[in-house]
Amino acid sequence: MFICIMENGKTAIAKNLHNGFAFGSTEFHVLRANPLVNTKFVYYLLRAKQFRLQAKAEMTGAVGQQRVPKAYLENYAFPLPPKEEQDRIVEILEELNIRELKLKEISGLENQLFILKQSILNKAFRGELGTNDPAEESALTLLKEVLQEKIT
């Protein structure tokens, strides 16, 4: 079973419902798959940019209350390859999603490292790194000495 919220693009698969029932609002279009259809295949189709742009062009209602008409979904010619091909497409998309999540995680870590580096450099140039022992040279003094050595 699918619950498709078209105006904001959210789509979800509803499964293992208590007594097989769910509640929603007028924003939902519920699509039920049969054994010849991979539920996740239809999910990814509904999430596809091309489908969403076509559906958006058919919306009716005022801004903030726009809906895709039921007739649009009823008349949409869903591209439906054989079940085995649907399964393979879903496997590929799931693997790509995993890779995308890993890339986002790495990107987030890179951003955190950049911020940490900036923070350390900021403290170093203000002389806030070290033991705060007045007898020790400041980080700025040490940096000047290292730069001077490289010049000479």
Describe the 3D structure.
This protein is mostly helical. The protein contains 5 helices and 3 strands. The protein has helices at 39-47, 49-57, 70-75, 83-125, 139-151; strands at 2-5, 11-13, 28-31. Strands 2-1-3 form a 3-stranded antiparallel beta sheet, with helices on one face. Strand 1 (2-5) and strand 2 (11-13) form a beta hairpin. It is elongated. The N and C termini lie far apart (74 Å). The mean pLDDT is 81.
Quick recap of the structure?
The chain is mainly alpha-helical and 152 residues long. The protein contains five helices and three strands, in the order βββααααα.
Shape: elongated
Helix fraction?
Answer: 40-55%
Low-confidence stretches: none
Radius of gyration: 28 Å
State the end-to-end CA separation: 74 Å
| Annotation, overall tally of beta strands | 3
Strand content: 5-15%
H/E series, N to C?
Answer: EEEHHHHH
Biggest sheet statistics: 3 strands, antiparallel
Biggest β-sheet: strands ordered side by side in the sheet: 2-1-3
Number of helices: 5
Average of pLDDT = 81
Query: SS-based structural class?
Result: mainly alpha
